[in-house]
Amino acid sequence: MKEPVRVAVTGAAGQIGYSLLFRIAAGDMLGPDQPVILQLLEVTPALKALSGVVMELNDGAFPLLHSIVTSDDPMVAFKDADYALLVGAMPRKAGMERGDLLSANGGIFKPQGEALSEVASRGVKVLVVGNPANTNALIAQQNAPKLDPKQFTAMVRLDHNRAISQLAAKIGSPVSAVKNITIWGNHSSTQYPDLSQATVNGKPALGQVDQSWYETEYIPTVAKRGAAIIEARGASSAASAASAAIDHMRDWALGTQEGEWVSMGIPSDGSYGIPEGLIYGFPVTVKGGQYTVVPNLPVSDFSRARMDATAQELAEERDAVRGLGLVK
Ligand code: NAD
Ligand code: LMR
């Protein structure tokens, strides 16, 4: 058996946490031979609820669950963390403007970035789930000067999984037959679910659906799926979001399948003309714990316009948090 690794999760008493923690403890994220120490962060008023979640985790008698730490102090929860899943965020409330949301989240992700920089493992892998995920990841990253900016990522994997599932259903194929979809850009309705390189059963996806369905139904359905779930459930997606977080971290830690890529929100290195530094969804492969943007994919005019529009939205979010003094 391997030595245990430390997995920090914020917002641990929330909806996503209630699904995520049990999947991590079961070994779904880091494999069946990797014991974990869960280090759970919550705000002070939620610590009582968190203690109930801890009781349930213990009652699961998970062989891989070495131990659990709970705290309302990021310096404690992030101490020596090898993985950090930043789920807790300020939800948008009635009457709140985008700027208010960004400012409220700045109050969360700035100190969390600072704490990660000070006390986490030097190789920590950080995934931001809490919305607006890409810009929250940017805030945390920019306030963590002692870590490599590439250690901060944002979740577009739920969008990626939604894109696979919608396409598979349309064609009547199992999801396992769908490969190489990309979610470019922001985890928001401007995201671009790109089928130009995707295959289903080894054949080009776009040869198996018509262009008008792709443009007028598929792209908006994937991009607005989060809102559709809120409308139907009366609460935002939780189990599927947790599952996507598991997928993101598993692939980052253990690697992607040969010949396939996944979508991750990562700091742009200027690839595909996306402004450097934005945390933007790209197609990536992973080997040895390091992700690489898939190079040299052709970009049509149709794709270019959509990739630029979502980059523009992220640049506006960055400028807004820059105006608040949260990023350089
Ligand atoms: P939730 O409200 O059920 O839980 C959030 C938890 O975070 C709460 O328990 C709250 O006490 C805690 N929290 C708030 N501030 C905190 C802080 N500073 N430190 C630690 N904990 C803190 O929400 P949820 O349904 O679990 O969703 C969490 C976030 O994930 C939301 O921002 C949601 O919009 C986002 N989300 C993202 C995706 C994605 O694909 N990126 C998908 C679904 C949901
Ligand atoms: C989702 O995509 O399901 C969520 O990000 C929606 C939301 O606003 O919480």
From TrEMBL:
Top EC category: oxidoreductase
Active site residues per record: 187 (proton acceptor)
Catalytic activity entry: (S)-malate + NAD(+) = oxaloacetate + NADH + H(+)
Binding annotation for substrate: 92, 98, 131, 162
Top-level taxonomic group: Bacteria
Matches recorded under SUPFAM superfamilies: LDH C-terminal domain-like, NAD(P)-binding Rossmann-fold domains
Stored InterPro entries: L-lactate/malate_DH, Lactate/malate_DH_C, Lactate/malate_DH_N, Lactate_DH/Glyco_Ohase_4_C, Malate_DH_type2, NAD(P)-bd_dom_sf
Ligand binding (NAD(+)): 11-17, 105, 112, 129-131
Domain Lactate/malate dehydrogenase N-terminal: 5-148
Keywords, comma-separated and alphabetical: NAD, Oxidoreductase, Tricarboxylic acid cycle
Signal peptide: none
Pfam families membership: Ldh_1_C, Ldh_1_N
EC annotation from Swiss-Prot or TrEMBL: 1.1.1.37
HAMAP family named among the record's database cross-references: Malate_dehydrog_2
Role: Catalyzes the reversible oxidation of malate to oxaloacetate.
Family: Belongs to the LDH/MDH superfamily. MDH type 2 family.
Record protein name field: Malate dehydrogenase
Organism: Deinococcus rubellus
Gene encoding the protein: mdh
